[in-house]
Amino acid sequence: AAPRSFPWEPAERALGARRAAAPLAAMFADGTAPGADVRSVWRSARSARCEAKSCQTARISTAEAAAQSHTSRDAGVQTDHSKDAAQDFQQEARVDYAGLLSFLQKVEDAVIKELNKNWKSRAFDGFEVNWTDQNETVLCLHTLSYAEARDQNLQVTSVSWNATGSVVACSYGRLDDGDWSTEKSYCCRVNHRNCNSEFSPEHPTAFLPSVCLCASAGRSWFGTWLHSHAVPAGKGTTGCQARVGICDSALGVSPWCLGQVNWLPEAKHRTHCRLLSVSTDGKILVWREERDGRLVLAEGFAVVAQQIPRSTQLKKFARGDAAVGVTSLSFSPFDPRVFVVGVEGGFCLKCSTAAETLAPHRPGSSVPLRAPAELAFSPHGGPVYSVSCSPFHNLFLSCGTDGQVHLHSMLQTQPLISLQLSKKYLFCVRWSPVRPLVFAAASGEGNVCFIGDVHLFDFEKSSQKPAVSLKQAARDRPVYCLEFNLKHTRLLAAGDATGTVRVWQLSSDFTEQGPRERSRLEQLANEIPD
Predict the structure, then answer these.
(1) pLDDT tens sequence across 354-382
(2) CA 239 to mean position of chain CA atoms
(3) Is 139-526 a domain of CATH 1.20.120.450?
(4) Taking the alpha carbons of 308, 314, 319, 323 in that order, is the dihedral positive or negative?
(5) d(CA 446, CA 477)
(6) Is the full-model pTM beyond 0.70?
(7) Rg (CA), the chain
(8) Which of 434, 327, 459, 437 is nearest to 382 (CA)?
(9) In b/e form, how buried is each residue of 423-442, taking b as 16+ CB within 10 angstroms?
C-alpha cells in the first residue's frame, strides 16, 4: 500500500528546502512574537461580588490562666543523719600532716620576713579598729540629779568616772560662795548602765559637804575633797575609807581654800596610790593612808611668789613669801614627775615632784615643803580654773575667767593658740583620751556665737570655733565640770549649776582617730607662736 501522507507535509518539505538554500549567516535572526493575554475569570467574578479574600487562617482565640497552686507546702531535702555518712566524711577530711609540715617549713622564712616587714611598717599608725556601731550625732543618754541637793539649790562641783568606766560620781556644793558654808552637801554615784533620771537614795555613797572628787585609776575609790575633810569614798559602802580632820595641824589652811584632788600612783608600787590635794593657800600636799583609816601627810610643796622663775615678769604676783593660790593641777603622761598647775594670778606653772629647793617655812606644816615651780607660762586675763595635759604630746590646755582657752607647749612660754570661747568664765577644759586633736570645754554661758555650754573642739576641722556646742543647762547657768570616760570613750559627763549631771554619747567623729592625726598634732606643736 502506498504510504499515507498528511496535509502539512508538503509545507514542511518546502520550508526545509528554503532553509537549506539560505546562507549560514541567516540561520539566526532576531524576531518579536506578539504577547499572549489570559483573562482570569475567578478575579472578575469576585470583583463583581465585591469580596476580599486572603490566605490568612481564621482568628485564633487565646486566654490567660494562672498556674500558681492555691496551697503551698515546704519539704526538707536534707538527708537523714547516719553514722556511716559521718564516718565517711571524717575519712575524707583526713589531713596529710607530713605534707603540711613540709610546706610550712618551706615557706617559714618567707612568712617571717613579710611579718617583720609589716611590723616595721607605719602604714597603719594611729588606726584603731572600732567594733562599736557608728553614731553620727551627739546624744544625751542620761540626765541625773539628786532630789535633796536640788531642793537646796546645790551645784555639781565635780564629776568623775571610776576605774572601770561603769560608775559616774559627782559632788554637790557651792562654788559661788567663797565663805564657810554650813549647808549639808552630798557625794553621789550611780552605775550609768542601769540608772534612771535620779540618783536614788540607795545609790549615793556619802552625804558630806564636798567640793571636788577624783576617781582612782587603779582602785574603785573616789577621792573627795571636802570643806573640812579629804575622803576617798569606798565603792561598796556608804561610809569613808579614810579621812583627815580639819584640826589636823598638817592641813593648816582655811577650809574654803581647798580646791582639787588627784590620785598619784606610787613609783615603787604602781597599784598603790596616794591622794594629792591642791588649795588656794599655795600648798600641794600628798597623803598616804594608814592602817587605822587616817590620811597622813607624806610630803608637800608650796608655790610662793619668791620661787617663781625671774625670767618672766609676773606683775600680778606679790613678791616675797606671799602665797600663790593653786586652783588646778594636771600631770604629764610622759613624765610622772612633771605636772602643770593653774594659779589665781592667771599663770600656769610647770612643776616637778623631784624639786629639792625648800620653800620658805610656813607655820602649821608637819613636813618640810618644797618649791616645785620651774617655768611660768604667759598669763590669762584672770585666774586659771582648769588645766589638762595631752595624753598624746607634750602639750596642755588651760582656761579661766577671761573666757579663753590657751594651747601651750611645755617648752614655750607663749601659747600656740588662744581661743576666745566665751564672754564669761570657762570653768573646765579636758583633752580627749582617744582623739589627739579633740578637747572639750565647759563655759558659763550660751551666747549668740556659740549656743550651748559644753563645747567640743576638733583642730582637724577648725582651730577657731567648736565643731559642736551642746546645750547643758538653762540660760546663764554655768557648767562647772566635765570628764571623758577613759574606758567607754564615747561617754562624756558634765555637771552644772542646776545640780544636774548629763551623760553625753559622742558621735564617731569625736572617737575615731584619723590616720595622720598625730602628725597634725606634731605639726601644731612645732609651730612658733607670734
Answers:
(1) 988 888 876 667 788 998 988 899 899 88
(2) 35
(3) no
(4) negative
(5) 9
(6) no
(7) 47
(8) 327
(9) ebbbbbbbbbebbbbbbbbb
- DSSP class per residue in 501-515: EEEEE--GGGTS--T
Torsion of CA 316, 319, 324, 330, to 10 degrees: 80
Residue entry with cell 548629763: 502
Residue 417 burial (10 A CB sphere; 0-12, 13-18, 19+): middle
β-strands 283-289, 348-352 pairing: unpaired
- Beta strand pairing status for 295-302 and 369-370? parallel
Pairing of strands 338-343, 348-352: antiparallel
Which stretches of 8-154 are assigned E, i.e. beta strand? Answer: 139-145
Angle at 172 between CA 170 and CA 173, to 5 degrees: 145
Q: How far apart are CA 502 and CA 519, in angstroms?
A: 33
> pLDDT, tens digit, for every residue of 400-454?
999 999 999 999 899 999 998 888 889 999 999 999 999 999 987 644 344 458 9
Place of cell 555637771: 495
Closest by CA to 388, choosing from 307, 333, 321, is 333
Residue with cell 543618754: 141
For 47, the grid coordinates are 470583583
SS3 assignment, position 118: helix
Q: What are phi and psi of 42, to 5 degrees?
A: -65, -45
Helix, strand, coil abundance in the chain, percent, nearest 5: 15, 30, 50
Q: Which amino acid is at 142?
A: H
Q: Cβ-count burial of 47 within 10 angstroms (0-12 exposed, 13-18 middle, 19+ buried)? A: exposed
CA 62 to CA 159: how far, in whole Å? 82
507: CB partners within 8 A, 6+ apart: 135, 136, 137, 138
- Burial class of 498 by CB neighbour count within 10 A (0 to 12, 13 to 18, 19+): middle
Q: What are the distances in angstroms from CA 456 to CA 155, 238, 263, 494, 511?
A: 22, 35, 26, 12, 12
CA distance 55 to 361: 130
